[in-house]
TrEMBL record:
Keyword Protein biosynthesis: no
Name of this chain's protein: Phosphatidate cytidylyltransferase, mitochondrial
Organism placement in taxonomy: Eukaryota, Fungi, Dikarya, Ascomycota, Pezizomycotina
Region ranges (Disordered): 46-100, 522-549
One MF term in the entry's GO annotations: phosphatidate cytidylyltransferase activity
Pathway the protein takes part in: Lipid metabolism; Phospholipid metabolism; CDP-diacylglycerol biosynthesis; CDP-diacylglycerol from sn-glycerol 3-phosphate: step 3/3
Protein source organism: Corynascus novoguineensis
EC id: 2.7.7.41
Length: 549
């Protein structure tokens, strides 16, 4: 098998083909003259940044400091992700060269999951300086600054924030279309040029998730500042809003179709503890599934970075259990991206593009590599089996679809089963208890023996006889059971999350959202028909050519 140049990815030293970040200057500066001198429009000012309350009194100094630290941490990680080689055309040997530093990093990545520091209070407590930088996708500098300015328009403290979806990462090829002023203003009343360029002539609402420490306190502050963001539910007070958020659905409260800095956005609010639990245990997979795909992290948090690294590794292991011995990158990333849609009720109704997963992967191959190559490198049972992994600069070549192979040894696959997230693994065990007809008392004792693990962290867990029996099951049966568990995990939280939409967003906004989703469904169906017709046409032409010969 070909090891390729993946160690460069592990060290976070890959450079994309997008515009490089300016290394020596901080574009947070509010001086229009400085911005114009580098060809950038002035970025939106950080109007609040959690520094002032509505009555003018100073906000909690600790909250201000933490917001700034978490913002700076995201900036630093993104810069690290974009550093290293001076050009994407750098010599291949440089990326493949082993060094003491590189080996240490790989070793750290392999060891952190077995003995992580669960008392993570700051970024210094993470396993090493570059830990988790693969989560920070290199990004267009101007568009990034526009997105980073959004959380600063909220007085309520935001500890973790990311932007995601088709408004941030295109899910279709560049069309070159230029929208009319009317089309643009129908979505973004006053969109910066960076947003217009990034969305390639098709203006879209931009989605955000905000991680907060205390939901009721956060909504109380936010309702004073942005009462127009909320539905009539807010008239009952922040207690009612936080109750609906935390007790119904997946623990997320969405405010869609609000304008911030001239940009139409939707933002979801989640308590950090809820997010961390979903990332490490997969109790709902609602937000963990979103983070399986490339997102733009705008404000980072050390505990969430550690938890998300566990989440990404779990997604990779689950995909490997679903895949055959030999597969392609597109199949791997498609399987990972599809996990969160398996039990989503929107996929069973005409309210989502049926080609969504294919569009996400097909137009973001390099971003998926940036996210998962460092983790593929650490697993002992999967590797690239393609000469293309030895070519220069292949990682940023969107047209490549390399082959991989995994070791189907039951011991290694049993270890993967044992290291799945706790809540998810328990559901899978229950399925196999029924299939293998294990007596309830024996099954209870077996589960008791596994309770020495920490509920949050991974420890060095080796699969035993039960896990190996699962791993050795008929591949079709195993895939069916895993898919069943995924659906069980996602279905109810996703359904209740959708049902509380009219309550949290209001009927008018909910109806607008449904109309847009149904439009995407029709567009996806039409695109699928056109692709089938095109393939049939090509097949017909090929058959005719063969007959003539």
């Amino acid at each position: 098998m070909v090891r390729g140049r993946i160690p460069a990815a592990v060290r976070g030293r890959l450079v994309p083909r997008s515009r490089l970040l300016l290394p020596a200057f901080n574009l947070h500066l509010q001086s229009p003259a400085i911005c114009r001198s580098f060809g950038y429009p002035p970025v939106p000012t950080r109007k609040y940044g959690t520094t002032r309350n509505e009555d003018g009194a100073s906000a909690d100094v600790k909250e201000v400091q933490k917001s700034g630290q978490h913002d700076t941490a995201a900036e630093s990680a993104a810069a690290t992700a974009g550093q290293g080689t001076k050009s994407t055309q750098a010599p291949a040997s440089k990326a493949a060269t082993s060094s003491v530093t590189g080996s240490t990093v790989v070793s750290d990545v392999q060891n952190w999951e077995y003995d992580p520091n669960i008392k993570v209070e700051s970024f210094k407590d993470l396993p090493h300086a570059n830990f988790g930088v693969n989560q920070h996708i290199p990004f267009d500098a101007e568009f990034k600054e526009v997105l980073k300015a959004i959380p600063w328009q909220f007085r309520a403290p935001i500890r973790y924030a990311f932007a995601y979806g088709s408004g941030v990462f295109p899910q279709s090829k560049a069309s070159g279309k230029t929208p009319t002023e009317e089309e643009l203003r129908a979505i973004h009343p006053k969109a910066p040029l960076a947003v217009q360029r990034a969305q390639d002539g098709t203006p879209k609402m931009i989605d955000f998730i905000f991680g907060v420490s205390h939901t009721q306190h956060w909504h109380s502050l936010n309702m004073k500042q942005h009462r127009d963001h909320y539905s009539s539910l807010a008239s009952l007070g922040s207690g009612a809003v936080s109750y609906v958020q935390d007790r119904l659905g997946a623990g997320v409260y969405f405010n869609p179709y609000v304008v911030v800095n001239g940009i139409l956005i939707k933002y979801g609010v989640v308590q950090l503890n809820t997010l961390e639990k979903d990332l490490t245990q997969w109790d709902t997979l609602y937000l963990a599934g979103r983070l399986h795909k490339p997102v733009k992290i705008l404000r980072d948090d050390p505990k969430i970075r550690l938890a998300n690294q566990m989440n990404l590794l779990s997604a990779l292991r689950t995909a490997l259990l679903l895949l055959p011995p030999n597969f392609t990158e597109e199949e791997l990333y498609g399987t990972i991206a599809g996990i969160s849609y398996l039990g989503d009720p929107r996929m069973a109704l005409p309210t989502e593009n049926p080609r969504k997963v294919k569009n996400i992967v097909g137009n973001n191959m390099a971003n998926f590599r940036r996210l998962y190559l460092p983790l593929i490198e650490t697993l002992p049972n999967v590797d690239f089996n393609d000469a293309g992994a030895g070519t220069k600069d292949w990682i940023w070549d969107e047209s490549k679809n390399l082959k991989l192979a995994q070791d189907m040894d039951p011991v290694k696959r049993g270890n993967m089963v044992r290291r799945l997230p706790k809540a998810f693994r328990s559901r899978l065990y229950f399925q196999y208890q029924k299939k293998l007809a294990i007596p309830a008392e024996d099954f209870r004792k077996m589960m008791e023996e596994s309770k020495d693990e920490d509920a949050v962290a991974f420890k060095r867990r080796e699969g035993g006889g039960f896990e190996r029996r699962i791993a050795q099951d008929d591949p079709v049966e195993l895939r069916n059971y895993i898919r069943t568990v995924i659906k069980q995990t996602i279905s109810w939280p996703a359904t209740t999350q959708s049902l509380k939409g009219p309550l949290t967003s209001g009927f008018q906004r909910t109806w607008r959202y449904l109309r847009e989703k149904m439009d995407k469904y029709r567009q996806g169906k039409q695109a699928g028909k056109e692709e089938v017709a095109e393939n049939d046409s090509k097949s017909g032409s090929g058959s005719a050519g063969s007959e003539k010969q």
